[in-house]
Amino acid sequence: xxxxxxxxxxxxxxxxxxSFLLKLQELGVVDISMENRRVDEDEKNIINQINRxxxxxxxxxxxxxxxxxxxxxxxxxxxxxxxxxxxxxxEQFDNAIKKAQKELSxxxxxxxxxxxxxxxxxxxxxxxxxxxxxxxxFKDEWLNDYPIEVINHTSGLYYFVMVNYSxxxxxxxxxxxxxxxxxxQTKEQEIKRYLDxxxxxxKELDFLALYIPxxxxxxANLTNQLDFKMVKSSAIPKAENTIxxxxxxxxxxxxxxxxxxxxxxxxxxxxxxxSINDNAPILLHNNRFARLFEPISKxxxxxxxxxxxxxxxxxxxxxxxxxxxxxxxxxxxxxxLGATIYKFKxxxxxxxxxxxxxxLGLATIFFGILTGTLFGASLVELNIPALDNxxxxxFDQDKMFKLSLILGLxxxxxxxxxxxxxxxxxxxxxxxxxxISWVVLLIxxxxxxxxxxxxxxxxxxFSLPHLIIIAISGLGIMxxxxxxxxxxxxxxxxxxxxxNMATGLLGDTLSYIRLFALGLSSGILGSxxxxxxxxxxxxxxxxxHVVIALILIIGxxxxxxxxxxxxxxxxxxxxxxxxxxxxxxxxxxxGYEPFRKKSIEV
Length: 602
Prior knowledge:
Layout: E1 5-13, H1 17-27, E2 31-32, H2 41-60, H3 76-107, H4 115-123, E3 127-134, H5 142-145, E4 148-154, E5 157-164, E6 175-177, H6 184-208, H7 212-234, E7 236-238, E8 243-251, H8 255-265, E9 268-273, H9 288-291, H10 294-300, H11 311-326, H12 329-343, H13 351-371, E10 373-374, E11 377-378, H14 397-426, H15 429-451, H16 464-479, H17 487-511, H18 513-536, H19 541-582
Antiparallel strand pairs: 1-8, 1-9, 2-8, 3-5, 3-6, 4-5, 7-8, 10-11
Helix pairs in contact: 2-3, 2-7, 3-6, 11-13, 11-14, 11-18, 11-19, 12-13, 14-15, 14-17, 14-18, 14-19, 15-16, 18-19
């Protein structure tokens, strides 16, 4: 759900604005509206400084800080400037090493030689010429007919030199290459010098990593300065610039504390509870279960203040869909155990994510048990006497296919119920009549279809009671879809809605087949790795078990990664496209960001 907000308008004497904002920043609960304002040059400079510090921290956090204590006291600007210079130099040396390695690979086949000696011989008329030719064109008789020496034979090529006292060309069509300007030893020494320089740079970066707390403190200070400047520039001058007006938002649960603070400061303010038409910031407030799924909902968009938060409504479906796609009890058990073990040493801010992984793992275990799949093995096909009484309860592929469609229809209809509630809250019950009529019509189709499966039942599909419900629903759909408009407009709009519903409902429902397909592919791929492990293993006793273990570990690791990725992406797609669309989600709200001081590390 969305936390109710209170709107505040502060009227502050211009000379008291700075002191008031400092106290408001210390309070840290008021979200100041900063719409339609431009960032000035001073703010741009601060943002640039923050970005430079953040980039430096990111680079230094990959280093292992030096063990010696800090003896040279540098400020944040000195650390950033020096780190940037060192990183530029290291990049230059890295590029130089790549170039030198390329040149080394070109000269390496010629081995170690003295370049100056070759030059001295050339000055005395003894020219050493270098040739390369494919092995299929090289002739052994050349060794007797010409003053040549094979230097290397590698990668299907012959590298040889010829001593030539004149400028006569080699009688065969062989590629002559330019005399190497350096030897292997020269390039190896050059690369070693570059590596030594990089080692020196890395040691200095390790030393600079000791200043990460200093950089974080400076980043927090600059962020506080930036926030202060932005809030101050958002104040609207009134009464010949003597009164500054600020608009802010406060969550309902903090409203009393803010009022007490303002009354103690003798500040003039106007306060009122936000209406559904206000552009209030969004602060989500859900129960412990739904709160786990808030990071997923925030990936798409915040709702606007007037509509419902869909997080608690899609959370159970998302959990089921993930388990449906993963669909292996063994994989789910790995998720649960791994997350549980890691949770003991994880930081507090990461624990909600780990709890979410545990919940998704439990859903995977449930659907794995439902289908009888354990590490790619089908329990139905295994000869386990203890499971004989339970094998009839496992869902086969036909049942899982139908279940995916049923879950899809349930979520779509549930989304339409949410849409009706949204319309009712935002406008009035009249605007929800058409959507409610569609919900009644779809549910009645399902109910009377199920009742009609009993041959003795008089309540069948399109029986008289059902036709009455269809007629009433039809009236709401065709003539009450746009309250306040004339009957002909409503009828035309009803026909258009009927067309969209008929085509859209089918397409949306078929989208949920992906749940069945992903779950099936996960099980098949796991089964393939099992077959490979036991089919490719040799008969040697010890080696057989080693090969089986390696194939199973590597194969199932690949399957877990691929299946987990698909099990996360596709339920998100179903949520953000099918469910959000049928729920009438608008979105576009902004998150609640109170004006507060960023914490400074000691």
